[in-house]
Write a structure and sequence with these properties.
The chain is an alpha/beta fold. The protein has a 6-stranded mixed beta sheet, with helices on one face. The relative contact order is 0.12. The structure holds flavin-adenine dinucleotide and FE2/S2 (inorganic) cluster. Residues 44, 46-49, 63, 65-66, 68, 81-82 line the site of FE2/S2 (inorganic) cluster (FES).
Length: 516
C-alpha cells in the first residue's frame, strides 16, 4: 500500500477552488468543492494543460487550453477534446494538512450500455479523424459488448490535425511526432478494429459499406465522420510540384521539406489555415506573401475591425498581404512564380492554398446531400435510420443562433468531437442532443486565441487590447446578450465562460467575468 504524503496545508486550499501540486514529480490537482476534497491527475490528458489555470464550474473541472470538461465527483470525461476521464487519488485531511496516496484509480464506473440488450452490436465509423476518434472513445468507454469497425483512409492512427498548420511548418514538431489522439486503452481495445482502407461507397438505406479494395460489409449502425477535402486552386499551372493544400500530415511534411529559411512562399487565402501557416513559416524565417481577393483576414468569422487587427499583427511579423487572386502558377516542374490579377508576379518556392474545404461525402449514396455536399442531421446527429453524421460534414441545429435553431456546418475540432460523443451515445441507445457551446482555438506567433459561441451578426462589439498583446478580448453581443467571445491570455475566464455560456448570458455579466 502506498504511503500518505502531505500535499499541502489545508488552509491553502480555498473553498470551491483548486490547487495543483507536484508530489514526487507527479502533478496532482486538489479540488475543494461543496465541502469535499478530492484529488485528480493534475494535467489534462489531452495536451497536458495545468488544470489549476482553468475553472471549476457547475460541478465540472474545465481545462484552460481547449476546454475539455470532467465531473468533479469522479473525474469522468464530459467534454472533448480530452477523450478519457481523470485518474483519482485517495485523499484525506488531518492535522491541518491534505494528504494524498500516490496510487491512482479510475473512480468512474463504466456506463451501462442499453444497446447490449438490443441488436445494434455491429457499429461502423467511416473516418479516423477528430470525430471518428471521439466516437470510438465514447462507444468503448462503457460495457458495450459488440464490435466497432473504423474505416480510415489515412495510413496513420488518428492524429492531431490541428498541429499541422502551427508546429510542423515552423519546424517545431517533426511530422512523425504529431500526437495520436486515441487514448492507449481505446487503441488497444479488442472491440475496436481499424481498417485503413478508403470507403468507396456507403449506401445509407442498407447501411452497406463498399471498400476501395472491393470488400463489402453491412452494419447495424453507421457513423459518417469523413471530414473535409481541401479545395485546390483551379488555375493554369495548378498541377506543378510544390503547389500544396494542407489537410494531412503528409501535406504538412511536404510543405516543411519544400521550404527553407529565406525562400518565398505564397499563401492563397487569409482565413485560419492561411494565417496559421504564415505564422509558422515566418517563425522559420520563410518569406511569406498572403494573396486573397477583397476584404480583410478572418473578416467573415471575426468581423472587419478584428480582421484589421490580425492583419496588423501579421504585418508586424513580416507577412506581406496582397488583395489579389492568383491567375496562374509559372514554372517547369515545380512552381517558381505566381501571377496575380493585380499585375504582380511573385517568386514562389511553394504555394499553399488555404482557400476552403468541401465536405468529403462523395461516397455517400441513398440520401440527398446538401448543395455544398454536407449531410443534414437532427440535434441527435441522426441522418437516417441507424445512420449518424458528425464533424465537418454535418449540418446540425445549433441553439442560441436565433429564435429557431439555425442549421449550420461548423468546421472545428472540438465541435466535431462534441457531436461525435452525442452521436456515439445515441448509437448506444441513449437519447442525447447537441447542447454544447461551439469552441475553437487558433495559434499565431506562440499565442493561442480562443473563440466561444457562434455569431454571424452582432450589434455590439467590445474590444480590449490587440492580438499579440498578453491579454486581448472581444465580446460579440446582440440585443444585450453575449453571442461569442474571442480572447487571448484569459484562460481562467474563458474556461468559466465555456460553462456559463451553456445558458443565455447578458453582455454585462460577460463583461464582469472578463473584467471589461
Ligand atoms: C491544418 C489544420 C489545422 C486546424 N486547426 C484547427 C484548430 O486549431 N482548431 C480547431 O478548432 N480546428 C482546427 N482545424 C479544423 C479541424 O481539424 C476539423 O474541423 C476537424 O478535424 C474535423 O473533424 P472530422 O472528424 O469531421 O474530420 P477529419 O479530422 O478531417 O477526419 C476525417 C477523416 O476521415 C477520413 N476519410 C474521409 N473520407 C473517407 C472515406 N471515404 N473512407 C475512409 N476514411 C475517409 C479522412 O482521411 C480523415 O482522416 C484544423 C484543420 C486543419 C486541416
Ligand atoms: S489540454 Fe486540456 S483540452 Fe487540450
Amino acid at each position: 500500500m502506498a504511503a500518505w504524503i502531505k500535499a499541502m496545508e489545508s488552509a491553502a486550499l480555498p473553498a470551491d477552488g483548486m490547487r495543483r501540486v507536484e508530489i514526487e514529480g507527479v502533478p496532482i490537482l486538489i479540488v475543494h468543492s461543496s465541502g469535499r476534497i478530492r484529488a485528480f491527475t493534475g494535467d489534462c490528458p489531452h495536451a497536458g494543460a495545468p488544470f489549476d489555470q482553468g475553472a471549476l464550474c457547475e460541478g465540472r473541472i474545465v481545462c484552460p487550453w481547449h476546454k475539455a470538461a470532467f465531473a468533479i465527483d469522479d473525474g469522468r470525461w464530459l467534454e472533448p477534446p480530452a477523450l478519457e476521464g481523470l485518474l483519482s487519488y485517495p485523499v484525506r485531511v488531518e492535522n491541518n494538512g491534505v494528504f494524498v496516496e500516490l496510487e491512482p484509480k479510475r473512480l468512474h464506473k463504466p456506463h451501462v450500455t442499453r444497446a447490449n440488450a438490443g441488436s445494434a452490436r455491429r457499429l461502423a465509423i467511416v473516418g479516423g479523424g477528430a470525430a471518428g476518434a471521439a466516437a470510438a472513445a465514447t462507444l468503448l468507454e462503457g460495457d458495450f459488448d459488440g464490435e466497432v469497425t473504423m474505416f480510415a483512409a489515412e495510413s496513420q492512427a488518428p492524429y492531431d490535425r490541428t498541429c499541422l498548420s502551427k508546429f510542423v511548418p515552423a519546424g517545431e514538431m517533426a511530422p512523425s511526432d504529431v500526437p495520436p489522439i486515441l487514448p492507449e486503452g481505446v487503441a488497444r481495445d479488442p472491440r475496436l478494429r481499424i481498417d485503413h482502407t478508403e470507403v468507396k461507397r456507403f449506401d445509407v438505406p442498407t447501411k452497406r459499406v463498399t471498400l476501395a479494395d472491393g470488400r463489402e460489409f453491412a452494419f447495424d449502425t453507421v457513423l459518417i465522420a469523413s471530414g473535409s477535402v481541401a479545395r485546390r486552386p483551379d488555375v493554369p499551372g495548378a498541377g506543378l510540384g510544390h503547389v500544396f493544400t494542407l489537410r494531412s500530415v503528409d501535406d504538412a511534411a511536404a510543405i516543411l521539406h519544400a521550404l527553407s529559411p529565406g525562400e518565398h512562399a505564397v499563401i492563397l487565402g487569409d482565413s485560419f489555415i492561411g494565417l496559421e501557416t504564415a505564422s509558422a513559416l515566418r517563425k522559420r524565417g520563410v518569406e511569406v506573401t498572403i494573396a486573397a481577393p477583397g476584404g480583410l483576414p478572418l473578416q467573415r468569422p471575426l468581423g472587419a475591425r478584428v480582421g484589421a487587427l490580425f492583419r496588423e499583427w501579421h504585418e508586424a511579423n513580416g507577412v506581406v498581404f496582397r488583395h489579389a487572386k492568383a491567375l496562374r502558377f509559372e514554372g517547369s516542374r515545380e512552381v517558381e512564380a505566381v501571377a496575380l490579377d493585380d499585375g504582380a508576379t511573385l517568386p514562389a518556392k511553394a504555394v499553399i492554398a488555404g482557400i476552403g474545404v468541401r465536405p468529403a461525402t462523395h461516397f455517400v449514396s441513398g440520401i440527398p446531400l446538401d448543395e455544398d455536399g454536407g449531410v443534414t442531421v437532427d440535434a441527435a446527429m441522426r441522418a437516417g435510420r441507424g445512420v449518424y453524421a458528425v464533424g465537418d460534414i454535418a449540418r446540425f441545429p445549433l441553439n442560441g443562433t436565433g429564435a429557431t435553431p439555425q442549421k449550420i456546418r461548423i468546421e472545428h475540432w472540438r465541435v466535431a468531437q462534441q457531436q461525435a460523443r452525442i452521436a456515439a451515445l445515441n448509437m448506444l441507445g441513449e437519447d442525447t442532443r447537441y447542447d454544447g457551446v461551439p469552441f475553437f482555438w487558433t495559434e499565431h506567433y506562440d499565442k493561442r486565441c480562443d473563440y466561444l459561441g457562434h455569431v454571424e451578426h452582432w450589434d455590439d462589439l467590445a474590444i480590449s487590447g490587440r492580438p499579440g498583446d498578453d491579454r486581448f478580448v472581444v465580446l460579440y453581443s446582440r440585443l444585450g446578450r453575449l453571442r461569442a467571445v474571442l480572447a487571448c491570455g484569459c484562460e481562467h475566464e474563458m474556461a468559466l465562460l465555456s460553462e456559463r455560456m451553456r445558458e443565455p448570458l447578458s453582455t454585462d455579466s460577460a463583461r464582469a467575468i472578463v473584467g471589461l
